[in-house]
Amino acid sequence: MLFTEDFLHYVWKFRLFDRINLQTTQGEELEIYSTGLHNTHAGPDFQNARIRIGETTWAGNAELHLSSSDWQRHGHTADNAYDNVILHVVYRDDEPLFRTDGRRVPTLELKDRISPDLYNRYHNLIFGAKTIIPCEASIATVDGLTMQNWLTRILVERLEKKSETVIATLNLNRGDWEETFYQFLAANFGFKTNALPFELMAKSLPQNILAKHKNNLMQIEALIFGQAGFLDEDFTDEYPRSLKKEYEFLKKKFNLTPIESHLWKFLRMRPQNFPTIRLAQFAALVVQSNHLFSKVLETKEVKALRDLFNNIQINNYWETHYRFDKESKPVGKHLGVASVDTILLNTVALFLFSYGKHLQQQYFISRSLKLLENIPGEQNSIMTDFANLGLEINTAFESQALLELKNNYCDYKKCLQCGVGIKILKPA
Ligand code: SF4
């Protein structure tokens, strides 16, 4: 038989072994009241188990191994953390186990107590030939409620991990949520390609400087384009010449240092996504929306949240330009629906969740999840694969959860820790 300790954990945790006439390997009667709490950190595998051996009821830890000799191999004999193990659960009992005081450690052998059917299903799931994910033949058969509960759980896991970065940045910003939101939002405006220079630009230009000029789009653009390193040239058009002049004054006034302009990428991008256009949109948003994070917190309706980013009025110059000094056909340069969705998904929903988690306010966590339910699901090769397996993916709630599932469970074959895998393997 080919299986892992994970499978043994799964069998023990869900009591999927023959429990009739249970006995220790020394022939004492055994009854399991509780298998204990699965411990994925250091120390015994299951904590606070409750069992009866003979006439005595014990409460303590259970340790699991494929062979009883693994106890010695894993160095548990000299480790005090294993002193209160009340039961050693093994697939095969290949050698007796003694405590330091010479007493035998009670052992349960499961070799003849696991059904071949369960083993075959497990083997087929983990070791069978697959093209996309291990459970590809069965995932579409899992009932909607199980799927929904599991997707919710892993979506929360994903957001919890991502919010650690938010809180780390919040700490660097001394608890200033507005500044932190502004920096993340800027990175989001750079989308994948220009996220780094956008973030560096925002970090080089604190909000309190922008706030001093918040009613003047021209000065805000001068600060933003200047700090982005785009105003360090000689221009022909009047507009960038004015920005440059304004920036030179503000740069001295606030003792600013711009970032390196070579960090920005234009190559293989649609002109609509050029960083110059994104910076102009970002500048307009700064002017239009004071204390944006407070507004996000106050704005309950999804449509109203969307409106915070829709219809940003950028400077007319950009209607006929994608770059300074290069005229083009007039085209509107509003943020498109897909861009607003990306901002709502990557920044707004993440911040609602992080804020709720940090302040332990479920209300904001729920709003974050509700927002994700109202954003269309992303389209990428992973979603195409899941759709081909028969899953319906309509919202970002689903697509984000499935991304987490694929990247952190399926790819590592963590099927025995996955709600879908547990359901598929569970005996009918
Ligand atoms: S981790 Fe879950 S969803 Fe992924 S292949 Fe395994 S059982 Fe299926």
Helix content: 40-55%
Computed Rg: 29 Å
What characterizes the major β-sheet? Answer: 6 strands, mixed
Termini separation comes to: 23 Å
The geometry reads as elongated
Structural class: alpha/beta
Task: Describe the structure in your own words.
By secondary structure, this protein is α/β, with parallel strands linked by helices. It is built from 17 helices and eight strands. It has helices at 5-13, 70-73, 116-127, 144-172, 177-189, 191-204, 207-211, 217-227, 238-254, 275-288, 292-298, 302-307, 337-358, 362-373, 381-388, 396-408, 419-425; strands at 30-34, 37-38, 46-53, 56-67, 85-92, 107-109, 321-323, 326-327. Strands 1, 2, 3, 4, 5 and 6 form a six-stranded mixed sheet that branches. It has a two-stranded antiparallel sheet with strand order 7-8. The longest helix is centred in the middle third of the chain and has 29 residues, at 144-172. The model has no long low-confidence stretch (mean pLDDT 94). Bound molecules: iron/sulfur cluster. The site of iron/sulfur cluster has 12 residues, from helix 17.
